[in-house]
Amino acid sequence: MRMPLRLSLSRFALARCARLVFALAAVFVMSPLWAQSAWPLRPVKIVVPMPPGGGTDAWARIAAEKFGEILGQPFVVDNRPGAGTMIGAELVAKATPDGYTLLVGDIGTYAVNPNLYRRIAYDPGKDLAPVTLTARHLLGLIVPAGSDITSVQQLVDKARARPGALNYGSAGIGSPHHLAMALFERTAGVQMNHVPYKGGAPLAADMLAGQLDAAFIDLPTALPLVRAGKLRAIAVSTRERLDLLPGVTTLVELGYTDYRAEAWQGLMVPAGTPDEIITRLNAAYARASTDPAFRRRFGEIGIELTPSTPQEFDAFRRAETARWGVLIREKGISAD
């Protein structure tokens, strides 16, 4: 029995329509627009260009948990230390700009390395896109618990009596710890010998062993050891005293009124990452930062959250690059 022509054409049209709908759906699913709005669809990697155990690593591990909670996918920390944080930064700068590879770098990564190396494998202003300032790590001027140095004045007096004889450590050439002490040397008019390490954890280990006379160490690393009586804090680099160390003076109180040094960090993504993804990451961190429990976890270890807009982060990075560039050139600091 032959099917009526009108019914046959109708079924043919319906079949064509169905194929067209499926085709359009496939295009939409594979389109960048859909990918952006659906991001993230799989785990996101946070590259930390330092070894485990320091302040930036501590921030990344706590924040990764919160990002996963807010955005619905796991955020995984990937430590890639080396070459003054350049290995990790270059990895992210060359990664696919799809929102699945993030960089949490510090002052060294974003503001110091361009001043420290004649050749740098990435340009923070061109190869990376800012998401947000994330935090600042408070710094303490630390000496071994068994040291006969119990005050900043004693440290200064010993350094002046024997220029270049005292050893101070840092987490690496151009690290916040290094620059904080270089600035202190200039401000106090003293000269000490710099001993760079590959990260904050090995620096603290040699401080515990009494191999160093002094160092600026970020509080996430130093605070547990100070509280345990294994290290001694003789000053903090902040403008005001800290609730975490209420009995420890500030350098400003001691007359170093122009002294200002801090270890800050921020979140970046590869240049070309869609604005919508950057906006969602920024909003997620801003939301996390309003959570009292989240803020308290950081406050207890000496990390102060500093969420910002991408534009504010970019302006801050530029200003810090210029500011520390002056000191680096003046002190002749170089990693080459």
Model description:
The chain has 336 residues and is of the alpha/beta class. It has two domains: 42-137 and 262-331, Bordetella uptake gene, domain 1 (D-Maltodextrin-Binding Protein, domain 2, 3-Layer(aba) Sandwich); 139-236, 3-Layer(aba) Sandwich (D-Maltodextrin-Binding Protein, domain 2), CATH 3.40.190.10. It is 46% helix and 18% strand. It is built from twelve helices and eleven strands. It has helices at 5-30, 32-38, 55-71, 86-93, 107-116, 152-161, 176-188, 200-208, 219-227, 275-289, 292-299, 310-331, and strands at residues 44-48, 75-79, 101-106, 128-137, 139-144, 167-170, 193-196, 214-218, 231-236, 263-270, 303-305. The strands form two sheets. It has a six-stranded mixed β-sheet with strand order 2-1-3-10-4-11, with helices on both faces. Strands 7-6-8-5-9 form a five-stranded mixed β-sheet.
Concise description?
The protein has 336 residues and is an alpha/beta fold. Helix content is 46%, strand content 18%. It has a six-stranded mixed beta sheet with strand order 2-1-3-10-4-11, sandwiched between helices. The protein has a five-stranded mixed beta sheet with strand order 7-6-8-5-9.
CATH superfamily of the largest domain: Bordetella uptake gene, domain 1
CATH architecture of the largest domain: 3-Layer(aba) Sandwich
- Reading off the top of the CATH hierarchy, the class of the largest domain is best stated as Alpha Beta
The 3D shape can be described as globular
Cα end-to-end separation = 88 Å
Characterize the largest beta sheet: strand count, sense, and whether it forms a barrel: 6 strands, mixed
How much of the residues is beta strand, in percent?
15-25%
